[in-house]
Task: inverse folding
């Protein structure tokens, strides 16, 4: 989780005008709220061992807020940072209403009931594979650190368990905890040994363990609290753009929840439980806005992959982990020390975790008839468009400085550009639309799309195991029944 928690504020806070102290507080706040949101999701949401954390989906509208004209004239950097953070808070508070309403009203339950294994496969696959740019390209920013971490992780997780049989479960479950300290120490020795003394600034930033500036800027003990940056400010255009990001996060989290249920050895998640989880994720985004994390929340894709790597799909483990998040966020210096891990080490982990998350989507193809040309078309076309359309939007933006949709209405531009820059959203939308419109009522199509495999999981009550995996604690199912 520290990868996303550190990378996003490190990129955004300096653009807002914040210093190292501000960055340290934002990281603390993001980790603190992530712990709370994870506990809420595991107790009252889907009840799956899903970690809720910062999301790259919300970065684009946040950058749009940073570049807004009304902040450009502010001469004082710290005042500018506070004003932008308050604007981001207001946009997140409004955007949270989308997931809260769609989730708790049951609207998303009705959408999810038409999801088949065929339409779920591209969505879940691109939730993982769609983040490929955060993998090896980031490893290569400091190849002498990132590549050893990747190689060691593969050796510890895949080879050693079958070589040293007595310690098989140890290597299976703790490969990450073994390899990170080894490579982190190696990176520290390179740093203190002067290996990067004359290196370019970019190389030093990615490779050194002392470049984050967080240890000096972080307070020893600090408890984040609501409205710590001041009263939120609201702007309609920014709220609409953030709402589009919230909708994309909703779709991506749907795919991540499905992957988590798969790797946690739970039954396919019932639509009503999925809708409940989306509602609680909306509560999480509301908390992001109230506390001022500068970023919205969604299901952590890397932790979905971690379930597959460790084979530990325990709700209790995730709840204890959430407790550690809260603990380290309050003890700022401890969290800052962990945050000094170079980003290429996290990127190496992503290569494994995102691959596992994406392969969960490919696993759903076993329920489909891959000899059907209808299946081939929907699968191939949705995956291709899911990769191709966002690539066009991203390339256009990198060259022109703005997205392909460039009208006089900035909030409309942000909404459309955010939607079509998400690979998982485009793939999932295309697959869902085609799967539910092309020859849907033909007798053979139902079996081709694998819909009959999920029939018994369309309702909470039709499978006795739903109580085991998804029932609410404290006998709350009596007051909030699932259907």
Result:
């Amino acid at each position: 989780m520290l990868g996303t928690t550190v990378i996003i504020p490190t990129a955004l806070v300096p653009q807002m005008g914040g210093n190292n102290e501000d960055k340290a507080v934002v990281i603390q706040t993001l980790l603190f709220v992530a712990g709370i949101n994870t506990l809420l999701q595991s107790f009252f949401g889907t009840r799956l061992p899903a970690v809720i954390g910062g999301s790259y989906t919300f970065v684009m509208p946040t950058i749009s807020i940073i570049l807004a004209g009304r902040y450009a004239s502010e001469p004082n950097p710290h005042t500018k940072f506070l004003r932008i953070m308050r604007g981001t808070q207001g946009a997140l508070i409004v955007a949270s209403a989308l997931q809260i309403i769609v989730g708790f009203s049951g609207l998303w339950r009705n959408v999810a009931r038409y999801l088949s294994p065929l339409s779920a496969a591209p969505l879940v696959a691109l939730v993982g594979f769609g983040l490929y740019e955060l993998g090896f390209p980031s490893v290569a920013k400091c190849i002498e650190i990132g590549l050893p971490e990747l190689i060691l992780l593969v050796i510890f997780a895949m080879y050693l368990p079958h070589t040293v049989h007595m310690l098989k479960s140890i290597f299976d479950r703790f490969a990450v905890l073994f390899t990170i300290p080894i490579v982190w120490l190696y990176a520290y020795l390179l740093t203190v040994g002067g290996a990067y003394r004359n290196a370019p600034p970019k190389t030093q930033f990615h490779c050194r363990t002392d470049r984050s500036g967080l240890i000096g800027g972080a307070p020893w003990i600090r408890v984040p609290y609501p409205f710590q940056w001041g009263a939120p400010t609201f702007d309609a255009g920014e709220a609409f753009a953030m709402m589009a990001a919230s909708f994309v996060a909703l779709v991506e989290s749907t795919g991540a929840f499905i992957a988590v249920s798969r790797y946690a050895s739970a039954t396919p998640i019932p639509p009503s439980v999925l809708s409940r989880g989306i509602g609680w994720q909306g509560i999480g985004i509301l908390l992001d806005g109230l506390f001022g994390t500068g970023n919205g929340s969604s299901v952590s894709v890397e932790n979905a992959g971690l379930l597959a790597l460790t084979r530990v799909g325990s709700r209790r483990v995730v709840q204890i982990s959430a407790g550690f998040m809260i603990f380290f966020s309050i003890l700022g210096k401890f969290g800052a020390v962990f945050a000094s891990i170079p980003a290429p080490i996290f990127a190496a982990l992503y290569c494994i975790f995102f691959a596992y998350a994406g392969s969960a989507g490919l696993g759903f193809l076993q329920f489909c008839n891959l000899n059907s040309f209808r299946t081939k078309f929907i699968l191939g076309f949705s995956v291709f468009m899911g990769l191709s359309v966002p690539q066009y939007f991203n390339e256009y933006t990198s060259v022109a400085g703005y997205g392909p949709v460039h009208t006089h209405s900035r909030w409309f531009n942000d909404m459309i550009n955010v939607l079509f820059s998400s690979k998982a959203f485009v793939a999932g939308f295309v697959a869902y639309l085609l799967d539910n419109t092309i020859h849907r009522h033909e007798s053979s199509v139902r079996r081709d799309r694998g819909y009959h495999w999920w029939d018994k999981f369309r309702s909470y009550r039709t499978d006795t195991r739903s109580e085991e995996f998804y029932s609410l604690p404290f006998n709350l199912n009596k007051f909030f029944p699932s259907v």
Remarks:
- Residues 77-104 form the longest helix (28 residues).
- The chain is about 65% helix and 0% strand.
- The CA atoms of residues 91 and 115 lie 30 Å apart.
- The mean pLDDT is 91.
